[in-house]
Amino acid sequence: MKIACQEGLAPGATLREKVANMEKFGFEGLETWGRGLAGRVDEIKKALEGTTIKLGSICAGFGGCPLDADKSQRDMAINDCKEILKAAGDLGAVGMIFVPIFGSPRIPDLSPLADPIKLEKDLMVLLGQEMGETAAAAGTMLLLEPLNRYETHLIKRLEDGVEIAERIGNPHVKIMADFFHMSIEERDIPASIRAAGSWIQHVHLADSTRLLPGYGHTDFKSGFAALKDVGFDKYMALECGIPGDPMVELPKCVQYLKGCM
Question: Which residues does 103 contact at the CB level (< 8 Å), separation at least 6?
Fold first, then answer.
């Protein structure tokens, strides 16, 4: 397992400075934002050149909404995602993190034909198959992210993500696990990780407080043990608040996480 940091959390005036600090702190991977990624490929490659830091993941960054009632919003989201996936492949990233919808359903209830949840899942499978082909061609992955009940109504637990990924049936469509969301939605985080198994291809790290690991009550040791049990060896990226000076808190967090491993 490799520890990564989101670009926005790392101190530095330029991406090169951020990467240099990440390397000094002991990180191994970078997670960056997907918006405008195609235009940043050269910048990112130059920033990583000659360092031990690799680009691990791309965090969303698409416009529109894949499950909107308005087709123009769906088309915008899918076209943006395809562009991001192509750039992610060029950069050697594991994958692009994908949340299909925030908040409540936007598709009308067509019962008794189908309720919004069934319609959303069926649509997500079709769109996932389409984006999965792009991911496969690019040599990267589409990573479905379960959120908590306060942020979405659809994919909230790891098993929800696995259900959709299984139906899509493309090895380039997997899921990711976020410790903050799991602390709300999963009754037993290690058991949920073991049940999801090799479907997990990326991890987000935040404590129960949504601050750096170590500033809440999440049991990372048992979660990491479960990840090892399922053979997870990819990136775990910080996505959280920093309660203090990043130059002090980030290297301290790396040491804390290594201790939990």
Answer: 151, 152, 153
